[in-house]
Amino acid sequence: SELDRRHDRTRKMVDEVMKEIHPLSQEVLDWVKDEVMKPYRYIFYNYQKGKKIQKGFCSYCNQMVDIQGAKHKGTAICPHCHSEVTLIANGKYRDKVARMQDQSHFVYIQPTKDGWCARYFDVISVMDGRGGKDSSQYYHKEIGRYFYSTQKSCYTGFYEWKNFFQTGEMRFCKVDERFSMPCKIYPKSLNTVRQKDSRLRYIPLEDIAAHIKEDACLLIDACWRTPLQVEYMAKMGLYRMLEESVSRYGHKIPEGKTPAEMFGLSGQPLKAILSINPSWGQVETYRKIIRYQKNADVDVFCRLYQKSGYHMRLPELARYLSLQKIENYLEKQEKLRPEVPEDRRADMILGDWLDYLRDCQKLGYDMKEDRILRPKDLGTAHEETVVLAKEKEQEITREGIQKRAKEAQKYAWEQDELLIRPIATLKELVAEGTKLKHCVAGYASSYAEGRCKLFCIRKKSAPDTPYYTLELGRNDKLIQCRGYRNDVENGYKMQEDVRKFVDRWMSKVVNKKKKERIKVNAA
Fold it and tell me: End-to-end CA distance of the chain, in Å?
């Protein structure tokens, strides 16, 4: 049929491209076992109660060894091959013999006539506690092949192992775009890329591949975009920052030509922070701290950074105190809060401390006094300043509302059975929201600061009973007018008598005042 002929043409086209692909060498397979699957090495042992030394079998070197102080799922060093291993006791699972299955990924760059092909693999290890060479098996499956042409300077084809047109035949099929997968990169194959592309001739790709675990195609893309910066970061050993930058969603590599331009630091601070192979987050936080403390201790910074989950708190605290004083105070306050879980204790204290200092600023305290900056009991001091700051804030809001109410008194008006006037006090504003069951009280600060005007509409027969609340925004634009429960029973619409009243008020009072204001400004 025509469909079969079309499928045959597609197969031949793909098979023609795949002729250049060759099997992996034994050297690559050995590297997979030694490096890619390095985290998955085990010593299986038969637990015998009361014995200090247990007999075990190492899945990596295939040797029987003696293990002292064995603990199931603990770590140890194999006495024979000196590998770091995980200890697994037979009999801890349903089966008497323990069985471990692990999966990882790697990429191999293979040269082609016109460029190279990035080949992505899944690798699976299956190991059990029987002992012997047959107890450890490795399987690899190729899942993606992406061809790049150096002559055309672009990728010429993406192929993945898939179900061929849903026919049930599994083979390599052409796809529109490739997927990104962080994984170990076979370092020796990267020399192929450097030889074929002169833009990469100075970049130590093998060293980069040995230190980071990232998508190979994204790494090469980053080298093309910013070769100078990648070369500098690799030669300086800044592999954490480089790995973050290569990631699809990572920090963009700065385009500066000097270290000072790249990192926003220079001199001793730059030398100090780069000496710890930092992350981009550490560099950015340290750079902000340096604004307040030119000689900030990097070791103390690292300890505080590790303790804190919200790193941007550190520069704000560094405005007032040295990092060493921050660390010392934090340790003292941690001892006063044993009830807080240890992994959350430091963050909670730093958060309370910053809130306390902000309240102290609002209250006008002297922010240079040590007794203010570091109270003996932060918890108690924080509770006191919260109350005082709230009272002061309410006083400011109260005064602001009274001032705005006097200014808006010129908008007061009445007609027929209704009247409108500005809300006069904070107490009246809260009562308005409580009685009408809407959220006007939340607009208190906006009203006090002049960002809006708030009015109450009342019936002349009951001038003290809340009926409707109205808001004017910038340029006296009508924002909203709400009755009881936001007029939910009337489809969230104003009562007809109120709507007509508001329309007349806007026309005869508000817009008239607006025109007068415009004339004055023009004059």
Answer: 86
